[in-house]
Amino acid sequence: MINNSYMTMKEVKCVRKTVLSSSMFLLVVLFTVQIIPLSAAPEVPYGPFPDRVIIFLQADETQVVPMIEKGEMTAWLYYLRLSENIQKAEESAEVDLIKTYGGANELLINPLETTGGFNPFTIREVREALNWLIDRNYIVNEIFKGRAVPRWTIFRAVSPDYSRIVDYAKILEAKYAYNFDKAKSQIFEALAKAGAEYKDGKWYYEGEPITINFLIRPEDERKDFGDYIANQLEKIGFTVNRLYKRSRDAFLLWGSYEPSKRGEWHIYTAGWAFTGITAYDDSDPWFLYSPDNAPIFEEYRGLPLLREALDKLNNAEYKSMEERIELLKRICELSLEDSVHVWIVDQIQPVPASSKLGDKVIDLYGGGQSFWYLRTLRYKTGAGGDIKLGNRAMFIEGFNPIAGFSWLYDVYVYYLVADAGVFPHPHTGLYIPIRTSFTVETAGPDGKLDVPSDALKYDLTSEKFKPVGPGVNATSKVTFKITWGKWHHGQPITKADILYGIAETFKVTVETSPLYDPVAASPGRTIFVKTFKGLRFVSDDTVEVYLDYWHVDKSYIASTASVWTDTPWELLVLANKAVLDKKVAWSVDMADEWGVDQLDFTKGSSLNILSEILATIQENYIPPELEGFVDASEAAARWSALKSFYKTRGHFWVSNGPYVFASADTTALQVTLEAFREYPFKADKWDTMLTVKIPNVRVTDAPEKVVSGLAAGFSLRSEVAGQPYDKASVKYLLTDASGNLVASGIARAYGGGVFKIELTGEDTSKLAAGVYSLKLIAVGEEAALPYLTEYTFTVTPAISYFESLSESLRAELSTKILTLENRIETLSESVSELRNRLNSMESIVNISIVLAALSILLALVALILLLRKK
After folding, report:
1. CATH code at 91?
2. Rg (CA), the chain
């Protein structure tokens, strides 16, 4: 999770080939069959598809669509905020929009007792009342124009964890729904109790107006919803000082302790960018209440029970999924009561890109700002070419892998240049291999595994790796199989790099270390240091890692145990010497404290400092940690390669990802990255993840009316790309017209994409008459983003139903009787008509008989007369 005002990054930590098997090859040779392909498939290069990526400054949103249309920009690494620009992009044949829930907005509240006047937000009840004061639906519809969803809880409304507790979350959302009168009542009561006075429509404390310094970001929607909330506060009787400040100027206030303590700000419109989906948000809530997020948390620790729950979740101190879910619920409830973070919306962010781009992997959170998107960019025409990416800001912090890249705008470069061992899958949020495949064995949460006595542990005091010895155990073991490859300076990645990377984690995380940096001591590094029990290389490319850590998901155990490194050992040794001398610092915070620059491997004063130190290092120097693991010739090759790289490239950033950092132009404000063709994977390595399998669930058969006391069934169909899809779980929530949760459960799967919800007569007997909404939350196994839909129906009381049924039957019977009577009358008329016709026919017959008789008589007479003549 990255804060896009002062972005603190959460630690992040298929191949399509033409292959002939040996047996098939023999068949081809033996039978001399000539195979002529209809068209030769283009060769897929190692490394990325493009030859170069250029990231340059383009902060003016109005220029983005025209630049993409002209071919001056391939994609923009931010989202379009203005409706007119979104419309232009949607209407342009040259521009595609990638839309994901990549952002979130909140109010960060200053809870400190300030030295510069009365701060009403030291009172918990006043903070809590802000939830009732804000009409989130108004903000979604009128300010975000529907491109957001309301959010109340600390867990994103579109997150896998939210879907796990959605029934409880809906109860909290109903409790904290917009209610201006309730907000006013609670604020008035709390302020009066604190000794404040309300007169002439304004609040006063010790004779002075209670003034709220409201820090509002003017660059985006935060300007509008900040003004709306300021208006609401003024209606309550507060005096509001609206401070419109952009990112850097705003950070100088909320990002520093002293201005916070002086009360120079009380509320801040904070924005967050999420560049990758996570299946389990164990660390995010903890981070939000940590000094790494904001200095106010150096003093304010939150409600005690909330702090306890945050620590337990972050440290995975639970023994089952059920226990974890209870922690999530407790954190949701207590954080709303605490309300230092008042969440507003989860935001849909449309990121523009050229329609000339081909397929790319889309992260369900990060979209066009994610690790996967950047790594899989290509043109429809195939491999090669330059990708030109516009960036909203450039060079915010120093480029170093220990405490740099904490801003969103900087991290894009890191994603392309440095490799992770494991990384969250773009659709599920579960960790998958990048450079290290893994298997996990765990005895957790309560059991233990034996750690081999020859496994190695790191001793910070002696700066040595030593055997753990006998009698050591651990909760889990992760076995990593490593894809080694080369560093960007051409040297092979080795075990020594892994070992020194572990040592570096201890050096910057343990407080007694001279290299300790509180910013570098991230949650991930801290947990590793606390739980690491040892590692053992069992072959050239396989390492076992033992740790006292357990998680409900094994991939998260693997992520915590990951020992892959993105920096060669000699570069870390060089940088550590500069930091130990306090010539530079790993983090901005320590740089400010020491009065030096933050370490930057690519530009600025750091280059001369590192170059001077490099010149003093013995040509085959081996640090204590690696004695016995690296020989003199290997060390000499490393130091020589680093010197050559600096001489050739003009910078020190050696890493191991699909791109080499080529250059930084601080005048033109751009960086150039070049394809690393000695990368071990081909460019289509991740193409199996091009298709996103989010199930589309709809109601296919359901009653419009449900009778209280009678069973009711709802048939559902789950599909992906129009085909039945069974790999999904469908949860349902039944809410009344006021949004109150009245029932919940899991739909039963019947196969073939069919799911059913059966409400028994006992279930429906508990439903009062009225309109109800059946909310469906479908989560697929292959895509963790929940799919939401709903069906509305009416509940009718049984007596009303039977009265209505009786009346309906009576009316139907009356109609049938009337119809029958009409038919009888019609039949009677028909009979009369027939009778008349018969009578007429009888008369005609009688006449005919008489005439016939007369005819016969005349004939006889004629015959007699004829005979007489003869």
Report:
1. 3.10.105.10
2. 38
Whether residue 131 is found in the same domain as residue 62: yes
**689 located within any domain:** no
Residue at 690 is within a domain: no
Q: Do 75 and 163 share a domain, yes or no?
A: yes
Residues 515 and 592 grouped into a single domain: yes
CA distance 763 to 714: 14
Neighbours of 272 (CB within 10 A): 23
553, with CB counted inside 10 A (0-12, 13-18, 19+), is middle
Distance in angstroms (rounded) separating the CA atoms of residues 198 and 411: 49
pLDDT score, position 31: 25
User: 3-state secondary structure string, 410-476?
Assistant: HHHHHHHHCCCCEEECCCCCCEEECCEEEEEEECCCCCCEECCCCCEEEECCCCEEEECCCCCEECE
Q: What number is the average pLDDT over the span 405-411?
A: 93
Which CA distances in Å does 863 have to 851, 860, 869?
Answer: 18, 5, 10
* Pairwise CA distance, residues 517 & 737, whole Å: 53
- For 280, phi then psi, to 5°, come to -135, 120
Q: Positive or negative, the Cα torsion across 847, 853, 858, 862?
A: positive
Looking at the fold, whether 461 and 353 belong to one and the same domain comes out as no
Within a domain: 615: yes
Q: How far apart are CA 46 and CA 675, in angstroms?
A: 9
Same domain, residue pair 236 and 132: yes
Pairing between β-strand 728-735 and β-strand 712-720 as defined by DSSP bridges: unpaired
Q: What angle do CA 322, 327, 332 make, to 5 degrees?
A: 125
For residue 548, give both structure tokens: 């006292």
Q: Give CA separation, 32 vs 29, 39, 473, in Å.
A: 5, 21, 61
C-alpha separations of 697 from 723, 724, 731, 787 in Å: 11, 10, 11, 7
Query: Would you state the pLDDT for residue 541?
Result: 98
pTM score, whole prediction: 0.85
Q: Name beta bridge partners: 585.
A: 598
Domain boundary among 590, 622, 655: 655
Residues 243 and 349 in one domain: yes
In sequence order, what are the beta bridge partners of 661?
673
Helix axes 321-338, 304-314, angle to 10 degrees: 140
DSSP secondary structure string for all residues of 118-176: --GGGSHHHHHHHHHH--HHHIIIIISTTSEEE--SSS-TTSHHHHHTHHHHHHHHHHT
pLDDT bracket for residue 383 (50, 70, 90): very high
Omega into 120 within 30° of 0, i.e. cis? no
Q: What is the pLDDT of residues 549-605, one digit of tens each?
A: 999 999 999 999 999 999 999 999 999 999 999 999 999 999 999 999 999 999 999
Structural tokens at position 537: 């290389």
CA 416 to CA 420: how far, in whole Å?
11
| Residue 56 and residue 181 in one domain | yes
CA–CA distance, 166 with 164 (Å, rounded to integer): 6
Same structural domain, 763 and 843: no
837 lies in which domain range?
A: 812-870
Three-state secondary structure call for residue 319: coil
Structure tokens at 556: 């998260």
- Exposed / middle / buried, residue 11 (Cβ in 10 Å: 0-12, 13-18, 19+): middle
Cα(673)–Cα(550) distance, integer angstroms: 39
Residue 235 in domain: yes
Rounded to whole angstroms, the Cα distance separating 517 from 681 reads: 34
Our measurement of the distance from residue 539's CA atom to the centroid of its chain's CA atoms, rounded to an integer in Å, reads: 37
